């Protein structure tokens, strides 16, 4: 059985790894935002997104944890808002 010190170190290591992943995801988020804003065919982008969106959610309906699915839905919702905003007047 691990000691308290070992468990504390494992938690610390997990926190560091999570921070690294958050930074990586944030960079991807900003990159994706730039791609959405500058897409040459905003109407085609939203049509494609609306076509694949149901399949994305369905493919994760039972495989992952409730927290993962909730986070996925939140991320997909954010992307949908950004894509829809990009199709509006400029």
Care to describe what's here?
- There is one protein chain.
- This protein has 90 residues and is an all-alpha fold.
- The chain has two domains: 1-38; 41-90.
- The protein is built from three helices and no strands.
- The longest helix has 34 residues, at 4-37.
- 1% of the residues are buried.
- The model has no long low-confidence stretch (mean pLDDT 91).
List keywords for this structure.
81% helix; elongated; 90 residues; 3 helices; single chain
Total helical elements: 3
Q: Compute the CA-based radius of gyration.
A: 18 Å
* Domain unit count: 2
CA-to-CA gap between the ends?
Answer: 61 Å
Oligomer: single chain
Helix content: over 70%
Please trace the helix and strand order, writing H or E for each element: HHH
Major sheet, described briefly?
Answer: none
Please report the total strand number as a whole number. 0
The whole-number mean of residue pLDDT values reads: 91
Strand-pairing-aware structural class: mainly alpha
Q: What's the overall geometry?
A: elongated
Strand content: under 5%
Low-confidence stretches: none
Explain the layout of strands and helices.
Elements: H1 4-37, H2 42-59, H3 66-86
Helix pairs in contact: 2-3
Question: How do you describe this structure in short?
Answer:
With 90 residues, this protein is mainly alpha-helical.
């Amino acid at each position: 059985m691990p000691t308290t010190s070992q468990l504390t170190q494992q938690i610390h290591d997990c926190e560091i790894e999570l921070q690294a992943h958050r930074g990586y995801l944030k960079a991807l988020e900003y990159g994706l935002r730039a791609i959405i804003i500058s897409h040459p065919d905003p109407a085609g982008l939203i049509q494609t997104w609306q076509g694949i969106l149901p399949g994305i959610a369905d493919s994760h309906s039972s495989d992952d944890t409730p927290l993962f699915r909730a986070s996925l839905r939140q991320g997909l919702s954010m992307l949908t808002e950004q894509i829809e905003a990009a199709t509006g007047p400029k």
